[in-house]
Amino acid sequence: MRVIAKLFLCIVLVLFFSSFGNCADDENCLLCHKYRTLSRIDETGKTRLYYVNDNLFHSSVHGKIKCKECHSQITKIPHEENTKVNCLNECHIVEPTSEKRFSHKSVAEVIKSSIHSPENKYANFSKADDFPECIDCHNNPLFKPIQLFKNITEEGQSPKALARCNLCHKEEKFIKYFYNHVSHRLHTSKDSSEIVRMCERCHSKPEMVKRHKLKNAVATYKDTFHGKAITFGLEGAPDCVDCHVRENESAHAIKSYEDPESSINKDNRKKVCSRKTCHPNAADGIEDIRMHVVIDKNLYKPEYYTALGFTGLTLGAFFPLIVVLILELIREIFPNFSLRKFKRRK
Amino acid sequence: MSRHSNGILKKIYAIIGIVLLVWSSYLVYILVMHIWHQHGEEVENMAISEEEKLFKEMMKDKKEVTYNLGYKVIKQEDIEKHFHHVGDPVIHDSINICIKCHGDIPHDKNKAIRAFLNMHSDFFACETCHVRVDNKKFIWYNKTTGKEVDNFEISVFLNNIPQKLIPLLEVDGKFERLDSDSKRNFVDEFRKMLPTLSPDKKSQGLKIIHKNVSKNPVKCDECHAPSLSQSYLPLLEIGYKERRVNQILSNEVVGMVEKYKEFYIPNFLMPGQTK
Q: What is the predicted ipTM?
């Protein structure tokens, strides 16, 4: 009888403590996947890396998701071939308002109405393979928590706020996760250069640009003042999403410029430029400024000759002036240096 | 202030001025000249085959990406369509002779276990498994300097470490490294001369370089054996702590190795059992 009681106690204790643990890897996938060089070269010659950085995974928005919930096609060891993650899977997390299991299905619905869907009537090419899947734009988003206190906004978790949470909630892991989750969403979690890099993956591929009858949108954007600001590391500089997505809408709902609902449709452009955070006092006509200009004589004559003029000025006046100034300063450093004397001495 | 110190100050200002002028020219160059981006390269890229594109892509340097999370900055390799973050870059082995030709993801033949074998090449030199030694003596060397690492103790799993294990070969009662200076020089010279060597000389050279390579490399279950005495590697002697040895020889690891062994036995070895 005593043995049974002890066994029962043990089972209760194990169940009790296991419910608090971080169960993201209770299948022990990290037994193999924790190794940095678990990799191979695939049949197309690309490196396939199977490593999962445990530390970074737990600092990500998916940190509480078990491997099997995304990699649901993997059922045995050795794993099946060609398994693919379906981001629309339902996971164990319960969405608190609907009390249903969480899934990204609603995102897929929004994408269906966007220009990133082959079904969109404004798409110039409708082969499904050419349209982005989640993995084309997203890697695992890392938590970027912020803290707000009086007039100060800083990165990281607020010890003051955590102390307040601690009053009612006792599980520290839960508190920190919840804090990260909420504060991560309070601001733009991807900086401008990340967004440009993300769009660039497809929009700078020449074959893709040709098939979809587009311009190299990212390269031409980088020519603009906005693009240059990103090049020089200005964090808040306007990126693709800022202009191409309607205010307060998800980036997944991005529309073609021909779509009347698009933020950059001719009729809506001024509204975008004159947002409170951009050019609130913009005059009429700002919407006519061409943003994605290819410097091509046949396409955009005025822009081409302006660019040519400025390039001529830079090469013909600015750079020679710089050379003269540098020579002048070199003379200051070596006031008595003479090339003739130097040659004679040799 | 003396005339002499005034002169030095002037020169310092002049140097600073030069640096600022060069820097500002660089900024102007980026601002103005970028508009003439290369349509030529885009057109050229479109005309080449997928294979050529892959080759071109491979020849480019690896891209690095930075994530500024505010409280920490993560720099890592930018891998296209890779969901999980990888963090610190791989510490590559610049010492091992084999890697100079075979690279550090060399295993490809055995579909089921190739990724596992490549994983082991992070902390074992190729020679550890591919050269069987009778009198077993191993050393750890630094992947960057090649120097022997003394008193290396392993209590947790080895991941992206700066050391690698290599066996020593007994020659005339003395133990010497398989990547000795003479062998390294021979390999370097051979690689340099390769385009000019005649085909028979190439074959001779390869034979000499690979003379110690065993036809039957050490298999997974020879190290992940049921007991320490059955393990090919003297795990305790090479620095593994007892706790880690127990993990390496645990049912979990050994059992998994068994599963992979069953998985890759070709069907022709089991007549009548084909699906």
A: 0.83
